[in-house]
Amino acid sequence: MKWNFPRWCLNPWLHTSLLFILPILLASALQPWLTSYSMEKRFTQDLDNIATDFASGLDGFEQRNVEQAFAELSFSCDSEDIALLNSPSLSPAIVRFIQLELADGRQCSNIGPPVHYQFDRFRSLFIDSQLVDIATTVAANDRARSIAYIFHLGEQRLVVLTNSSVYNETLSTLCHGCYQLMIGYQGLSSLERGVEDLLQTQTFIEDSRYISVLDVTLTLRAGDELYWREASRVGIVLFISALIVAFLAVIFYWNWQSARVSMGMLIQKGISRKEFIPYYQPIIDCRSGEVVGQEMLVRWRRFDGVLVQPNQFIPYAEDSGLILPITDLILEQVYQDLPQLKGWVSVNIVAQHLELGLLSQWFSSHPDPRAKRISFELTERKPITQFELALAEMKAVTPLCHDFKLDDFGTGFGGFSYLQRLGINSIKIDKMFTDTIGTQDLKGAVLDAIIAFGRESQMDMVAEGVETQAQVEYLAAKGVYQHQGYFYSKPLAFEDLLTFYQNLSNKM
């Protein structure tokens, strides 16, 4: 089936608009998923950081501060003791107040007069062999409640009340207005920090961490605010990335479009200047060593003398349809060379040559009998889509030419279908299969199958890419006698081909 797209579908400006819009649409589609993923990842990282800071806060205070300060306290509540209680070593940011309570009932704190506090629950815990009582203060709700750590120093004790605002500031620093933290010591009243009212109409996420050294569970909650913050951040990154991709895609497209236009113009100029010329690669019968034919291979020698490689223009020429006027130009030159050529000459054609009836038109304007020596090799890079037209053209042209060959058999679209439906009785074995001779390549079995099929079907077979004596002998033993490849000759310009003929005659 042949697809005929409306002309507006081929408009470069439409392509440009699509290339610009599609990355943005894709980014919009990905944003909710990426936002959820980013939110969960950030939430987990923040919870891990909170748990680490929480554990290291008390542990570090007990290890680095209390043990050192204990040795310096005189336990008299004099000015030196009060100064020490006010020092950063015993009053870091996490401490709201610290109070020394002596056995004789005297008390002193870092904020001056003794502080009267009231605990609703407490329990004992060993932290690095240090007995510590943990308590929660009496309060109206979980947000107002604080934690106290009571260190026993013989008959004296040191009471440390934590600063709840530190946790609020930590949560706010991580994400302002995003988090609510529940602190639950085993056997104590729970505490709540962070946002008082957590909006969760859009999303809600909750997870916990247990800190064994303190026997405390931290539960972090987040809702809409974290989601919208991540949505904004992810959206900005996606939008900028989408714009970059869109601009790069448009730039690449227009460079490609310009290259196509430039290539098309160069090829058209090359056709008008007759820069496309035939090269011939001899096809040898290995039994006699004689030339039985040659394949014509188009070459592009530009006006400035540069020889353009076939793979740089043939694919574009086939896609754009410019291969048709190139073939017309080359056929005319082959026709002029025929009187001096030996055997038949194969010319590559594409499906359009058959579907459009171009070969019969050419023969009608070249009734000379020498045209009967021209053979056509049907390439399969583009499939035949209108078989009835192709078959009719082949029936009209077959009596006028040497034959039709299926090029690169086994590698293209049609293969056996082309042989059956088009009635082709000559195949060319692709170099890909010839290269497997003498190797362990699994395609070697395919080569043997192709040869067996050709012999069974009484096909005329030509092996391409013959480069070694071992390949010559293997193919000959299998009954494939017509060889083409560098073992005999590379593709030659017309004058060089005549020299090759002469040298070959001298050897025989």
Automatic annotation (TrEMBL):
Keywords: Membrane, Transmembrane, Transmembrane helix. The keyword Membrane applies. PROSITE patterns: EAL (PS50883). The lineage of its organism: Bacteria, Pseudomonadati, Pseudomonadota, Gammaproteobacteria, Alteromonadales. InterPro entries: Cyclic-di-GMP_PDE-like (IPR050706), EAL_dom (IPR001633), EAL_sf (IPR035919). It comes from the Bacteria. Residues 260-505 form the EAL domain. The chain crosses the membrane at residues 12-34, 236-256. This is EAL domain-containing protein. It comes from Shewanella mangrovisoli.
